[in-house]
Amino acid sequence: MRKLATIVIAGLVACGAVANDVKPKEVKAPSKEEMAQRRKLAAEFMDTMKLDKQIKATFKMVRQNQAYMLKRLLKNDKQIKDADKFQDKMMNIVEQEFSAKKLMPIFVDSYASVYTSDELRALIKFFSSPMGQAFIEKSPEVNKIAMLKMRSIMLDMANRIKKEAEKYKKEAIKSAKETSESQDDQMM
Fold first, then answer.
1. pTM for this prediction
2. Among 99, 105, 110, 174, which residue is least crowded by beta carbons within 10 Å?
């Protein structure tokens, strides 16, 4: 999922828009005909961007990265095997819920709501060009390299989160015991 977001953001950045800086402009709402045209163009843009292929590549990369992380974070083969089994089940759910079939209408509506027909045509024209296709084809490779370089950051982060979770668990158990003891004392 993180990779899909990275791909979409990279596409927006390449087009000169950073998602957090884009604020809806107060303009006259497009007509039904214009929105229908935009949706058609947005769907064509998603096809041009090879959304289905990008999503599959993203999930493959996420699975590989998760396997790597599990091997570095867990202590023994049984833990790794159990966690791998669990991760596989969870990723199957994520892949089903974030399938191109389910995401396509969301992306189409999102792009149709933000971009004009002329802008969508320009995006299609660029991403249909040899340079645009090179961008699309090389995006998974760029993401893979970035992911490999971010592994140490992710491992450090996972270890910090694990420590905080363990600390929280101990505090929660202690608090639960104190509450239980307090209630027992009140009953006596």
1. 0.63
2. 174
Distance in angstroms (rounded) separating the CA atoms of residues 155 and 168: 20
CA 10 – CA 132 distance, rounded (Å): 12
Sign of CA dihedral 67, 73, 74, 75: positive
| Burial of 41 from C-beta contacts in 10 A (0-12 / 13-18 / 19+) | buried
CA dist list (Å): 27 to 33, 60, 111, 113, 119: 16, 41, 16, 12, 16
Burial 88-114 (b: 16+ CB within 10 A, else e): eeeeeeebeebebeebbeebbeebbeb
How far does the chain reach from its first CA to its final CA, in angstroms?
Answer: 54
Write out the two tokens for 123: 């995006």
pLDDT in tens, the chain (188 residues): 444 444 445 555 555 544 455 555 566 788 999 999 999 999 999 999 998 898 888 888 888 888 888 887 887 888 888 888 988 898 899 899 988 899 999 999 999 999 999 999 999 999 999 999 999 999 988 988 988 888 889 888 888 998 999 999 889 888 888 887 777 667 66
Q: Would you say 1 and 94 are in contact if contact means Cβ atoms under 8 Å apart? A: yes
